[in-house]
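Work package 3, deliverable 3.1, input record:
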Amino acid sequence: MDLSKYVDLFLSEGREHVAELSGALAELESAPASVDAIAAAFRAVHSIKGMAAAMGYAVVTERADTLESALDVLRRGEEQLTPSSLGDLIDEADALAREIELAVTRPAPGPEADGNATPTDPSANPARKRATHVRIRASRLDSLMNLVGEIEIARGQLERELRNVTGENISSAFASTSRLLSELREQVVGARMVPVGDVFERFPRLVRETARSLGKEVDFTLDGAEIEMDRSILDRIGDPVMHLLRNALDHGIESAEERASNGKPARGRLTLSAQREAGYVLIRVADDGSGIDRDSVLARARAAGIVGWDTDALDDVTLLRVLAHPGFSTAASVTNISGRGVGLDVVDAAVRLLGGAIEIRTVAHRGTAITLRLPLSVAIVRALIARVGEELFAIPFTHIVETLQFEPPAAAFRGAEWTETTIGDLLVRVVMLRTLFGIEPCVSERMPGVSVLARGRRAVFIVDDFVGQQDVVVKRFDPPRGGSSMFAGATVLGDGSPALIVDVNSLI
Amino acid sequence: MSHTVLVCDDAVFMRTMLSDILQQAGFTIVGEADTGTKAVAKYKELRPDLVTMDIVMPDMGGIDAVREITAFDPRARVVMCSAMGQQALVVDAIQAGAKDFVVKPFQPSRVLEAVQRVLG
């Protein structure tokens, strides 16, 4: 039986069922007990399974089967849906949707193997014509990336050796090798990249459903769906972004009446955008709602001892520090504060784990914008290389605000590893990395410092001197048992010398 | 005259594939239905020689549809189409009046065999 003529039908109907599935799952977000939604999701997955089995798409069939079993348990009432199990279902559904798209791009064996197949013109077979994708194990891409890193190191050593050799041919050959190598690295990094739309495309529906259940009118815009980022990062920011969107709908955007009485258009605006910025992807959730109520956050923060009683206003940086304070924003006592950053500590933790950072801007009655600054790839970060004692350390640019020369007051650092200084009107902790890393401290009149920002806090790290900046290939390692590490990983620099990558978050 | 068939499945894909298999074997597809309710209504309207019935469909499932169809016409010949792992439901369907069943993914030979037997 020739299955190729069913490929288009499989794809178009498969997509319809995926849409039904995600619609049903979106409904479950607001009504977790909806029997109808569970039944609809089950039917959609069941249909996909049947179609995929008929086409001989084993991976799709298997995934659909897994998801179907999970839904069946809910359908029979044997288990109740929890937010986390719903999250799993949504992830599974996304994976299923991707597999459907992938399945049609590779030739399928079909349910019956055709033993006497004759070679035909590949272009005559639509299933073959689309075969422009192959599946590669992520671990294989990781090894490729590692190898590229090793070659970069070898290139660095070669460059050093070549300084003592003259010859136009040699330097031009070296230049093209270097150029090809950086191209190769880009390609390898690029192979792990997928458009953010892959994960974000389910949000418009989700926003619509949530807004409806809250009785709010909202225009939702999704910008930059084509922007690409590392698959492993993208997979892990779906939930945090969803969280931010719900926050904006629930607590940011006001009811139509309230908006009208403030002279704002009745329909709220919510935008999710992705944007490339020199080595980062910025994911921003912006609303034109009420903004976060700084005064009530400040009152709570004082009461909770997160800021001092002398703090009389919260700027954006301090506000983020308060909201990201573990447990602050999820405490039951703040559930009634309008526009609060509910669960922002959870989002913050997820983003930090990926080597990213959060930024927040909020203006009363104008709205709130929360930006997730994420590395393009988990494998490579741009870092400042600094020397502390005899060792080299890499400080990721994600967190660096500026470099400066710190002039310590006479009594500074005496017997302590940190002191404080003011930058602008902000009191900032100054940390001597030497002391922190167990190296004999050394105080001089002017000391090179790196001003960093993480978790809404500013700090200055004092180093011995700056060596330069470069893209480093991160080799992660597990923190020592029972303790958190001060380092996020290690790398090998161009000249072959190892450097530890400082985990700014853990030092602040 | 060739036998007439009503194909019931909520997936266009499945209906198309099944129709192709049956048409190539000389059957005439007189109607399609994508819900159990429509299947019952179409059966009453078209009186086909044979019905192929999916189990999982919106609105009314295939088993209830078989029950209604056989209540209306005890001589109705219905072949259930079930997915892997639905053996328990197949028993229900047979009790509801279905004459035979095929398991997805369809193998044309298996489909035709079941259909011929039911019509035979």
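Residues 110-131, 330-341 of chain A have pLDDT under 50 and may be disordered.
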